[in-house]
């Protein structure tokens, strides 16, 4: 049953973990310790609440042997602790997943190592200098150990080194030298010490290097910073319980370790204090721990460690009688003294922190796993042969082309619904409108300028006089017409160039962006695509410039239109020839002004002096005016048509050709270059793969422990 179910369970993790978090939250306020049971049968999270006596831990210890539930409780916690330990071995912290951890901190020589020694019943290195130079993970396993002799081994840098009680100091020293070098440097790479011994509590703790302010001989100058960094790294996560070791001989508020733990746990809710060397400074100890000047939320435990060459048993006996018989120390409540009380307290705190953190860990492992898997999936595949490379090239080209066709030609914005800069037809229309307006405003401001300086029709009369020929007087000289037209064109000739430049600058942004984004996964191709896009736009821009040049030139050199508007406008304007003549020959009384639509009210009397040219000049002005409308229309329409055709050409023909030229043109075939995976992508793939393996193993670990617990709970029911 378990085998089949472990698969289902992995898939169900997400749901059950979420449910579980809710249940945990609800239970958090309850004084009893609770356990989540993931039931295989119903695939839903159920809870099981196990009553443990609160308060007096010695009663708890007594209850441990009496309550049948306790062994089950212990069993489960042990399984969960094993799972957490295995996750620690897997180094899930690398994935940003914090594990519930008891971390021992303390100033140098405060007695940290001695406390751990007392808890484990072993001897650790001691000495003057710095002994603990790397984090030491102590994994104590007593509840299930049946051997008569303790089993001890170290694990570090992938090695497992068996050791013995007498040899532990040496073995740790060798391991430390291996990791941090033979000098007195420190490292955050841990050593794990596994202690399997009857009677020791099931506890996992981390001993950190002691805090030294002043480097001793041979220590690096920045030893304080290095050690602080390691300690902060371990005690900052809210999943960490801080076991603060304080010597009874010092003033607690002056302790460096208190300063550090307060920096990350101000209220002290996850800090427990162990006061060592009670035997050395019994005076005022009770007052010190009662006053609680330093905010220790989880309470104080006073201890007396092994001194000199005492055995573990002798030390415990000496401790027990010290707190029983000493006139001052015996006043301290029994729930606050002795290594056994400390062990009980830690086991309980450990159970509750694991329980609290586990649902979140399960959720995070699951989340990280699927995150990494999807990241891996979008990573470009490693290409192994030319055919595959060709397929990639064709695919990238095809999709880039399709995107450009959508954006430039069809005006489909589904790929960039909110990015207005990519809505090309709309932006092009905006530019075209701006261009049209500019043409008109420039043309009319040139008109205004000349009418301010010269009287009505005088410009035309001057031009006519200059182009006088020996010819019949009623023939309009073409050259005069051409001169006037040229002058008008000069006023607006720059406008189409400016517009063209703007359009292609805009297009450059779009085309580069599209090509670059489609070739993103293949850096070798991307470089070529970027270059091709620039070349392409440069080419298109140049071509448009010569088109504009030709267009303007044609307008200057020739005049023709089949547009019926021309004749209509001219005829309409010519209706004012007669009233003009009437004013000039005085047949309209005192009237000296003539109003012509598009010109306004004009003073005309000055024309009496040029009567021989007036008729021709008027005719010519009206022809130019009528024709100019057509010219302006052509300047807009022709250019718009040209640009539309260029874009179509760009998308359908030129882009691909240009990329092929850039990509395949070099000495080394572009396709072959595609086969070389970029180191960035290769590294990323490797990193993702190893993360995924790690997280999969973690998922297995968690699934297994949940399965076993579920089975056991079925069994008990
Ligand atoms: P660490 O630097 O914090 O690891 O401190 P150690 O555990 O190495 O202890 C420093 C010194 O204090 C050693 O000489 C220990 O024997 C001594 N020591 C530790 N705990 C006690 C204690 O409870 N009573 C007495 N008298 N000495 C202790
Ligand atoms: Mg130490």
Structure report:
This protein is α/β, with parallel strands linked by helices and 717 residues long. It folds into 2 domains: 100-369, P-loop containing nucleotide triphosphate hydrolases (Rossmann fold); 386-674, Four Helix Bundle (Hemerythrin (Met), subunit A) (Up-down Bundle), CATH 1.20.120. The chain is built from 21 helices and 13 strands. Strands 6-5-7-4-8-3-9-10-11 form a 9-stranded mixed beta sheet, with helices on both faces. Strand 12 and strand 13 form a beta hairpin. Helix 10 packs across helix 21 and helix 12 crosses helix 14. Guanosine-5'-diphosphate binds at residues 106, 108-114, 126, 210, 276-277, 279-280, 304-305, 307. Pfam families: Dynamin_M, Dynamin_N, GED. Keywords: GTP-binding, Nucleotide-binding. Residues 96-359 form the Dynamin-type G domain.
Keywords for this structure?
disordered N terminus, Four Helix Bundle (Hemerythrin (Met), subunit A), Rossmann fold, 2 domains, 13 strands, 10% strand, binds guanosine-5'-diphosphate, binds magnesium ion, 717 residues, elongated, 21 helices, alpha/beta, 9-stranded mixed beta sheet, two-stranded antiparallel ribbon
How many E strands? Answer: 13
Sheet having the most strands: 9 strands, mixed
Report the radius of gyration as a whole number of Å: 45 Å
Tally of domains:
2
Q: What spatial order of strands do you see in the largest sheet? A: 6-5-7-4-8-3-9-10-11
- Average per-residue pLDDT, rounded, comes to 83
- The percent range for helix content is 55-70%
CATH superfamily of the largest domain: Dynamin, middle domain
Low-confidence region ranges: 1-72
* Class from helix and strand fractions: alpha/beta
Count of DSSP-assigned helices: 21
Bound molecules: guanosine-5'-diphosphate, magnesium ion
Question: From the coordinates shown, what is the CATH architecture of the largest domain?
Answer: Up-down Bundle
Instruction: Characterize the overall form.
Output: elongated
Spatial gap, N to C terminus: 17 Å
CATH overall fold name of the largest domain: Four Helix Bundle (Hemerythrin (Met), subunit A)
Which band does the percent of strand residues land in?
5-15%
Report the CATH C-level class of the largest domain. Answer: Mainly Alpha
Protein name: Dynamin-related protein 4C-like
GO cellular component, one term: cytoplasm
InterPro entries: Dynamin, Dynamin_GTPase, Dynamin_N, Dynamin_stalk, G_DYNAMIN_dom, GED, GED_dom, P-loop_NTPase
Domain Dynamin-type G: 96-359
């Amino acid at each position: 049953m378990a085998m089949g179910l472990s698969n289902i369970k992995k898939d169900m993790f997400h749901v059950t973990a979420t449910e579980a978090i809710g249940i945990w939250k609800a239970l958090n306020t309850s004084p009893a310790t609770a356990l989540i049971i993931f039931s295989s049968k119903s695939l839903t999270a159920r809870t099981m609440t196990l009553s443990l006596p609160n308060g007096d831990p010695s009663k708890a210890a007594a209850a441990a042997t009496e309550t049948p539930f306790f062994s089950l409780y212990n069993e489960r916690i042990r399984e969960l602790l094993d799972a957490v330990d295995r996750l620690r071995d897997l180094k899930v912290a690398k994935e940003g997943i914090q594990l519930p951890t008891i971390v021992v901190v303390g100033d140098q020589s405060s007695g940290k190592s001695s406390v751990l020694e007392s808890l484990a019943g072993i001897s650790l290195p001691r000495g003057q200098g710095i002994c603990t130079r790397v984090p030491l993970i102590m994994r104590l396993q007593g509840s299930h150990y049946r051997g008569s002799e303790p089993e001890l081994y170290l694990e570090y840098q992938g090695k497992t080194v068996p050791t013995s009680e007498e040899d532990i100091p040496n073995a740790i020293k060798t391991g430390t030298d291996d990791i941090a070098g033979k000098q007195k440097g420190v490292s955050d790479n841990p050593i794990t010490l596994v202690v399997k011994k009857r009677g020791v509590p099931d506890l996992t703790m981390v001993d950190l290097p002691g805090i030294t302010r002043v480097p001793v001989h041979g220590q690096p100058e920045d030893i304080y910073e290095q050690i602080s960094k390691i300690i902060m790294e371990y005690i900052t996560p809210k999943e960490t319980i801080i076991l603060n070791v304080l010597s009874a001989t010092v003033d607690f508020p002056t302790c460096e370790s208190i300063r550090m733990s307060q920096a990350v746990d101000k209220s002290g809710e996850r800090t427990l204090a162990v006061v060592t060397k009670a035997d050395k400074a019994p005076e005022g100890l009770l007052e010190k721990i009662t006053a609680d000047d330093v905010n220790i939320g989880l309470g104080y435990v006073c201890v007396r460690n092994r001194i000199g060459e005492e055995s573990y048993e002798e030390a415990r006996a000496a401790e027990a009688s010290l707190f029983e018989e000493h006139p001052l120390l015996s006043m301290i409540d029994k729930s606050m003294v002795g290594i056994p009380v400390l062990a009980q307290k830690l086991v309980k705190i450990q159970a509750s922190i694991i329980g609290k953190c586990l649902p979140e860990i399960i959720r995070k492992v699951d989340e990280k796993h699927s995150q990494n898997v999807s990241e891996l999936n979008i990573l470009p595949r490693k290409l192994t042969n030319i055919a595959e490379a060709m397929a990639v090239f064709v695919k990238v080209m095809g999709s880039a082309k399709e995107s450009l066709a959508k954006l430039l030609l069809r005006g489909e914005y589904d790929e960039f619904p909110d990015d207005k800069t990519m809505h090309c037809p709309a932006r092009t229309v905006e530019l075209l409108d701006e261009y049209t307006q500019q043409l008109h405003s420039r043309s009319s401001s040139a008109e205004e300028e000349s009418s301010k300086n010269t009287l009505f029709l005088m410009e035309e009369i001057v031009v006519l006089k200059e182009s006088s020929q020996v010819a019949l007087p009623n023939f309009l000289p073409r050259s005069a017409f051409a001169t006037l037209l040229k002058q008008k064109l000069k006023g607006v000739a720059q406008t189409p160039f400016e517009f063209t430049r703007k359009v292609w600058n805009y297009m450059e942004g779009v085309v580069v962006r599209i090509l670059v984004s489609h070739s993103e996964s293949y850096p070798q191709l991307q470089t070529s695509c970027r270059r091709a896009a620039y070349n392409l736009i440069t080419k298109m821009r140049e071509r448009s410039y010569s088109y504009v040049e030709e267009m303007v030139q044609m307008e200057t050199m020739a005049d023709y239109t089949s547009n019926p508007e021309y004749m209509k406008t001219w005829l309409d304007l010519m209706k004012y020839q007669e009233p003009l003549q009437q004013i000039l020959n005085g047949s309209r009384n005192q009237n000296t002004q003539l109003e012509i639509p598009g010109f306004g009210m004009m003073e005309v009397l000055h024309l009496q002096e040029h009567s021989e040219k007036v008729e021709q000049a008027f005719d010519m002005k009206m022809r130019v005016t009528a024709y100019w409308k057509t010219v302006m229309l052509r300047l807009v329409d022709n250019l718009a048509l040209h640009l539309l055709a260029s874009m179509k050409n760009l998308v359908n023909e030129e882009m691909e050709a240009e990329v092929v030229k850039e990509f395949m043109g070099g000495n080394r075939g572009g396709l072959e270059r595609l086969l070389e995976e970029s180191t960035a992508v290769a590294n990323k793939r490797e990193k993702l793969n190893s993360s995924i393996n790690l997280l999969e193993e973690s998922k297995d670990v968690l699934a297994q422990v949940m399965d076993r617990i579920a089975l056991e709970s079925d069994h008990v029911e």
